[in-house]
Prior knowledge:
ten-stranded antiparallel β-sheet
Amino acid sequence: MAMAVVAMAATVFTGCSSDDDFLTPYEESAIQTRATPNPDGTTTITFDDFASSMMAMTTSYGANYYGNVGSYTQVKEIADPDGVFMSEINTVTNNYGTFNNFSCGGLALSKWNYRTNPSSAEGITITGDTIPSDWWYSYNNQMSVYDTTSVNGSNEGAGHSGNNFAVVYGYSDEYNTEWMAQPEFYLTGEYTLKGLWFCNSSYTYGVIMHGNKFGASGVATPLSAQVDAGGNHIGYFQVELECYDFAGNKLATYTKVLADYRNGKNENPVTTWTYWPINQAGVGFVKFNFSGSDTGEYGLNTPAYLCIDDIVFEN
């Protein structure tokens, strides 16, 4: 029954800064392993009990989120076994047809954690015959989290409280609505969203720190080096978390700056799991969006990814 409520909401709802510094981070000791009540009455979605068929495979590119790959069927949604949480890969229709894969935006289940290039190309996806020097911060490694507390390339123990986490991908602006919609997830009812843990993807972290050819300058330029015509540093990148009730009314938007080099700041992207307090009541579903200074003819150049884990909510 709970799952049916989520599915109904998903069919209805498809395709401001927060001042949260005063909020107290959720205690790590209260985190449990399933979508079951914690001792304090909250519930945590950990992603570790999700079906293995939902895992991004067979490499950290996650080809099964784009189509069938060998014995792996294309993943079009992820959901916990208790029917509390569900997220669908977006479906986008344009002049070229109807598309339903990860390029349209969505959440993917992952365990991958490459933070540097591996010693060989075995078990990874590459373009060409050799591993490019920037492989670890390219789309071929888009499912990896940049968590320095985990063993690099072990592809286990990289979540905040276990092996698994979710990779959020996608955004919507004036340039890309024809091809992509905001990633989102649904709950079985309207809850107070207490908060969640986040960490940067390797792809996003690497491009922020080193740049790539898709940047506004046309050459690999770190976000910290982006300046305007007057030589002023303007680089920043942020994620917006939008909370909605089941009727589709937006309750609030919470913003988390992921990197900021404006006005003399030197805020590099986080490299460990970090708690993001929300404390928003009446939440039925959540949408994510990304924005930043490095944009071009086709929209945002900084990779629009974020890894999340241990989503905490209560009745």
